[in-house]
Prior knowledge:
38% of the residues lie in helices and 17% in strands. By secondary structure, the chain is of the alpha+beta class. The strands form five sheets. It has a seven-stranded mixed sheet with strand order 2-3-4-1-7-8-9, with helices on both faces. Strands 11-12-15-14-13-16 form a six-stranded antiparallel barrel. Helix 8 packs across helix 9 and helix 9 (301-314) crosses helix 15 (517-526). The radius of gyration is 29 Å and the shape is globular. It starts with a strand and ends in a 32-residue tail after the last helix.
Amino acid sequence: xxxxxxxxxxxxxxxxxxxxxxxxxxxxxxxxxxxxxxxxxxxxxxxxxxxxxxxxxxxxxxxxxxxxxxxxxxxxxxxxxxxxxxxxxxxxxxxxxxxxxxxxxxxxxxxxxxxxxxxxxxxxxxxxxxxxxxxxxxxxxxxxxxxxxxxxxxxxxxxxxxxxxxxxxxxxxxxxxxxxxxxxxxxxxxxxxxxxxxxxxxxxxxxxxxxxxxxxxxxxxxxxxxxxxxxxxxxxxxxxxxxxxxxxxxxxxxxxxxxxxxxxxxxxxxxxxxxxxxxxxxxxxxxxxxxxxxxxxxxxxxxxxxxxxxxxxxxxxxxxxxxxxxxxxxxxxxxxxxxxxxxxxxxxxxxxxxxxxxxxxxxxxxxxxxxxxxxxxxxxxxxxxxxxxxxxxxxxxxxxxxxxxxxxxxxxxxxxxxxxxxxxxxxxxxxxxxxxxxxxxxxxxxxxxxxxxxxxxxxxxxxxxxxxxxxxxxxxxxxxxxxxxxxxxxxxxxxxxxxxxxxxxxxxxxxxxxxxxxxxxxxxxxxxxxxxxxxxxxxxxxxxxxxxxxxxxxxxxxxxxxxxxxxxxxxxxxxxxxxxxxxxxxxxxxxxxxxxxxxxxxxxxxxxxxxxxxxxxxxxxxxxxxxxxxxxxxxxxx
Length: 638
C-alpha cells in the first residue's frame, strides 16, 4: 500500500480526486485502489513543554533559566490524537509513504515530523502541490521526488521550531517573573518575531507623540515661457535657514524674493526630458496582496489571508496563497490565456480587462530562476461563481486576476520633464509628466502624477508673472496600519540603523514569513499589546512598557531578520543547525542576565499608550486547520 499524507483534509480530497481509482472513504482517510490518502490537521505535534524534560520546570522560577532540552521531544496536540492514531495505523501497513505537505519550510516540517515521530523507516517521496485543480494535481502526482532532497529544508524548519521554543519559553518566563517582582500580575509574552514587530509600533507611536511641528515656507513663481505657462518652486541655497529636508524655516528671505519676482526675466538653464517605460506590476505574493487589499478595501492582513485560504481550498479559484514569490513558472505562460479566460467568465470588470489583453506579450513575470518552492498567486482558471463569494472574496479574487492579467498589457510609456530656471540668480524647479501610452495603467487606480509642462527648449527665456509664499507645517509620521506594517515587515532593512546589516537584509524575506505576518499582528492584539483605532494600529500602555523594559536587541529587527537569513542558509546547506542553536544559546544567556525588576517597574508606571487590554472574543471562532505560527513566546501555564 502507498500512503500519501497531506497537510490538511482539503488537499487530501484534491489528491484523491486526481487518482485513477475510485475513492472509498473511511475515518481519517480515503482509499483509492492501492493508494490511501490521509491527512494532518495542521500541526499534529508540538514541542513538548518544559516539564516533559524535568518536572521541576512546571513551576516558573528564574533560577531554572535557561531551560535547554538535552534530547528534544514532541508531544501530540490535544485535538490531534485521533488523527495521529489513524496515521499510526496506516503507516504500519505502508510500503511507501508520500509526503504531501505544502511546498514551504513549515509544510515540510509539518508532515515529516509526523513520519519521523511514528518511526517509519521505509522510502518517502515528496509531492509538491500549489494548485488544487485536478489537472494541476495530476501533473504533480506524475512528478514525485525523493523526500531526501528536502532534508535541508526540514532541518531549517526544525531549527526554527526549536529556536522559537528556546527564545519564547525562556524570555517569556524571565520577564513574566520579573514583572511579578515589579508588581505586574500577568504573563508578559516575548517572541522572536512578535516583539520586534511591537517595537516598530511603539517607536513609531513615540515619534508621533514626541513630534514638534515647525512651519516652513515654499515659494512659487508662475512663469511665462515661449509656448505657455507653468509654476516653478524656489530651491533655496544652503546658506538659507533650512531644516534637514531642505525646507525654508524662516519666511523673511522668501517674502523678500517674492516681492522682486513679478516682471523679472530669466532663462531655462537645465532641461532633462526623457521617455520612460514602466513594466506592469508583478503578480502578487501574499504580503504584497495584503498591502494592496488593506489600502484599497480596509481589510486586515489576517482577513486577507483567511480569504485567500478560502479561495484556494474551498472555491479552488487561486493557487497556493502563502507564497513569498512574485514570479510564475515559464510553463504557465502557455496556459495563461485559457486560465484567465476561465477566471473572467462571470464578471463584467474581468471580461473588460480580458478583452484588452494581448496574449502575444511576455513580461518578466515568467521566470523559472525566480521561482522557488512556490510561485506567485494566480487564478486556476476555474470560473468564479460570484453568488457563492462574499463581497470581500470577490474583491481579493479580482486583485489576483488583475495582476496576472496585467502581464499581457503593454508598458506604461510616459514623457517626463525636469526643468530648472534661473531668475534673479536663484533656481526655480518644475517637473511634469505626460502619458504617451497607458499600457497596463487603466487596470489600476494609481496616484496622480505631475501634470504635463508646455514644450520647452534649453536656454529659452522666461518671465515671472507672479509669485507667492505658502505657509505649511511639518507633519508627524503616520501611525502604522495593517498595510504599512506588513510592508515594513517585508522591507525591514529600512528600519535598521547599521548600514552593513541593512545591506545584508536588503534581499532577505524580512520579519516573519508570508504565512505568519498576519497572525503576528493578531497575536499582539489578542495579548493586549496593540489596539486598532479605525485603520491605525497603536501600542497600548502595556505594550509600550514591555518594549521600554526589554533589552533593545529583543525589540529591534536585526536579530530576528538575521535568524531568517541563517535559517535560509541551513535550508541551502550553507550553514549548520547545531551551530545556529549554539549561537542562539549564547545570545539567550546574555539577554536573561538583563532582566531588571526596577527597570520594568518604572516603565510600567511611566509608559504612555492607547487604552486597551487583551482582546475579547465576541463569538466562538470557526475551527481552522492552520500551520503553527512561528512567533514563539506562547508560554506554558504556571
